[in-house]
Design a protein that fits this description.
The complex is a heterodimer of chains A (222) and B (320).
Chain A (H helix, E strand, L loop, with lengths): L5 E5 L2 E4 L2 E5 L12 E4 L2 E5 L6 H7 L11 E5 L5 H6 L5 E6 L5 H11 L2 E5 L13 E7 L5 H12 E12 H4 L5 H14 L2 E8 L7 E8 L5
Parallel strand pairs in A: 6-7, 6-9, 7-8, 9-10
Antiparallel strand pairs in A: 1-2, 2-3, 3-5, 4-5, 10-12, 11-12
Chain B lengths: L1 E5 L2 E6 L2 E7 L3 H10 L12 E2 L2 H4 L3 H6 L6 H21 L4 H33 L1 H4 L5 H11 L18 H35 L1 H7 L1 H11 L2 H5 L3 H6 L3 H10 L13 H4 L6 H22 L4 H17 L2
Parallel strand pairs in B: 1-4
Antiparallel strand pairs in B: 1-2, 2-3
Helix pairs in contact in B: 5-7, 5-8, 5-10, 7-8, 8-9, 8-10, 9-10, 9-15, 9-16, 15-16
The chains are: A alpha/beta (222), B alpha+beta (320).
């Protein structure tokens, strides 16, 4: 038998044999074929940094806030990879996505987990105002104004002292500029709008030309 | 005093306290209304609807009061269930006619590619047997049809002799079957083309008139949907399909591209080289207008559009 070492990195996230994993709330739940391990009656599912920017951010030691039992607004849920892992950690996740192609997979995960609430809407229009205020806004959008969209959503839905997790796809903002430079400019925008930037890094080698920012809403001024 | 509207109830807040509420029994229609920017009937009086902290900071307690969900877990499950239903409805309610068009058009492009490489294969294959014919005939379709019809070279009416290899009956049958299949693909392709044409007349009459069925559906495919194409500025339409060249220009300062797939239009590809950019610009501007008419009004404005287009095209070509 393999010797597996569990090491809790952050409430809800584990390191097993040096690989990032989350604990499965639903036994046998593995919609993306990540692979699961059973240790002492608990089941863990590997969280692949090649597939999730959040996982990449954790592997790169970006300081992520405590997500355990928090409510979250997730913009750009796509096929639901990251969300499927977060569902076992967060209390409730509102998952916004605008691409129809993603919904067959996303809805299947929502059906199983029961605490992810799918929302079919354009994040930039912020029309889903029936959603409650949340502890965390997570944005992973491929738009040229992704930072602005995230901030606009944070202004409506983020609780005071809540956190904004922002994946910056620099290639959507400006392909001609150096990725790192694009990120620092986006961070300036965040600071100007009353966010305190806690930690940020580029996600190489897991994602090319992507940055990941953890910010806190201090004084909204937008 | 202000009112907060949630899927399960409306709450009146005064001085940081909820003083009155109405429970909603149809969360779905409330959510529909909120997303449309409407205010659902709540009977709490004429106060402004906002997002008071007391209501939106957490739904859990309020959901319990209104009887919507007794526990946080039940709240998640109920909202999830409602949204699963709503999302399914929203997606199935969207018009998919343009996507059908894109699929058919892409299928034709795929067929083109396949037919091309199979025809080239047939030429190579048949060259072994009858090089005088297969290696010198330019039109691949002619090779396909002749092989189908005659099989071995001795059956060709103008056959006089060949330095190619003898084919046995089995050899002949194999190559003939292969040609037959290529012919079937060609038939399929022309049927799909007719079908695409009739689809285009229904779904994108204006685009079809300005750009032609084939180009119009390729533009749709490149844009992703009619909705997206109709929201594009004409300068983007002009360069659809020339992204590589455009970004090379932006990054390295090479010459900017003048046209993308719009080049397929005979007016652009047929124009003198120094005028192609101007023709492409004119054509893309009309395509942009046509896409918007097709997406939003559904009116057929193609005659007026084409009249303007021809007039301006004439001016461009004359003033060279």
């Amino acid at each position: 038998m393999r010797f597996l070492k569990i090491n809790e990195k952050l409430p809800g996230f584990f390191s097993i044999d040096g690989k990032l994993a989350t604990e499965n709330r639903l036994k046998g739940f593995d919609p993306f074929g990540d692979g699961t391990v059973k240790i002492g009656g608990r089941e863990f599912r590997f969280f692949n940094p090649e597939r999730s920017k959040l996982a990449a951010a954790m592997v790169k030691n970006i300081q992520i806030p405590d997500l355990k039992h928090k409510t979250m607004l997730y913009l750009g849920a796509a096929h639901g990879y990251t969300v499927s892992h977060l569902s076992s950690i967060c209390k409730r996740i509102y998952a916004v996505e605008f691409s129809e192609r993603c919904f067959p997979s996303l809805l299947r995960i929502c059906e199983k987990t029961r605490n992810i609430i799918p929302v079919f809407a354009d994040a930039r229009l912020v029309k889903y105002t029936w959603v409650e205020n949340v502890d965390i806004v997570y944005a992973d959008l491929a738009q040229s104004d992704q930072t602005e969209i995230a901030m606009r959503n944070a202004a409506v839905f983020l609780k005071k002292n809540g956190s904004l997790l922002l994946a910056i796809k620099t290639r959507s903002i400006d392909v001609t500029k150096h990725p790192r430079k694009v990120c620092t400019e986006e961070i300036k925008k965040l600071r100007k709008s009353g966010f305190g930037v806690i930690s940020w890094k580029m996600l190489d080698p897991f994602e090319k030309a992507h940055g990941f920012v953890v910010a806190e809403l201090r004084e909204p001024s937008f | 005093m202000e009112i907060g509207i949630t899927p399960f109830g409306a709450f009146l807040v005064e001085n940081g306290k909820i003083v009155k509420y109405t429970a909603f029994d149809d969360p779905e229609s409330v959510m529909d209304a909120v997303e449309k920017g409407e205010i659902p009937e709540h009977g709490l009086g004429d106060y402004p609807v906002k997002r008071p902290e007391e209501v939106f900071s957490s739904f859990e307690h309020l959901a319990e009061i209104t009887g919507f969900a007794a526990t946080p877990q039940e709240l998640s499950e109920k909202l999830c269930e409602i949204q699963l239903k709503r999302v399914r409805k929203q997606i199935s309610g969207k018009s998919k006619a343009d996507r059908l068009l894109i699929q058919v058009s892409s299928a034709i492009s795929d067929l083109d590619r396949v037919i091309n490489s199979l025809s080239e294969r047939l030429r190579e294959w048949y060259t072994l047997h009858y090089p005088e014919f297969a290696a010198t005939t330019k039109d691949p379709e002619k090779i396909v049809n002749s092989v189908r019809k005659f099989g071995r070279r001795e059956n060709f009416p103008d056959f006089t002799g060949s330095m190619g290899e003898e084919f046995t009956e089995a050899d002949e049958k194999a190559v003939r079957d292969f040609a037959e299949k290529i012919h079937e693909l060609e038939t399929l392709r022309s049927e799909l083309e007719k079908y695409l044409d009739s689809l285009a007349s229904k779904v994108i009459p204006n685009l079809k008139a300005v750009a032609g069925t084939s180009l119009a559906s390729k533009l749709l495919a490149a844009a992703g949907s009619l909705e997206k194409l109709s929201k594009m500025p004409s300068s983007v339409i002009q360069l659809l399909g020339a992204e590589k060249s455009l970004f090379r220009h932006l990054k390295k300062g090479t010459k900017p591209p003048k046209h993308g797939i719009i080049y397929l239009h005979p007016d652009v590809s047929g124009a003198p080289k120094d005028l192609r950019g101007r023709v492409a610009r004119l054509l893309s501007s009309k395509i942009a207008i046509a896409a918007r008419a097709d997406r939003y009004t559904g009116e057929n404005i193609s005659e007026k559009l084409m009249e303007e287009y021809r007039k301006k095209l004439g001016e461009i070509l004359e003033n060279k």
